[in-house]
Design a protein that fits this description.
The chain contains 2 helices and 4 strands; from the N terminus they run ββαββα. With about 80 residues, the chain is an alpha+beta fold. It has a domain of about 40 residues: Pemi-like Protein 1, Chain: D (Ribbon). The strands form 2 sheets. A two-stranded antiparallel sheet has the order 1-2. Strands 3-4 form a two-stranded antiparallel sheet. The longest helix has 7 residues. The radius of gyration is 24 Å and the shape is elongated.
């Protein structure tokens, strides 16, 4: 598909046709990766990593663990 490059502020912009964005999974507000390979500009969706609970637990270490913080004692009729 041929399209035109337009001025957008101090930059240049290209419209992504709906059929392309749908196929690539890009919607308004999506994050994308943009790279140059030779004389080509490559635009690809940047997908968020989705982790299972097991994967997230495996990433816990002494460097990133959050310990319990006691800020105060009971204030009502709580049973501790």
């Amino acid at each position: 598909m041929e399209t035109k490059v337009k001025k957008w502020g101090n930059s240049l912009g290209v419209r992504i046709p709906k059929s392309f964005s749908t196929q690539a999974g890009i919607t308004e507000g999506s994050s994308i990766e943009m790279n140059i390979e030779g004389d080509k500009i490559i635009i690809a969706p940047k997908h968020k990593n989705e982790y299972s609970i097991e994967e997230m637990i495996s990433m816990i270490s002494e460097d990133n663990v959050h310990y319990e913080v006691k800020t105060d004692g009971p204030v009502g009729k709580e049973i501790w």
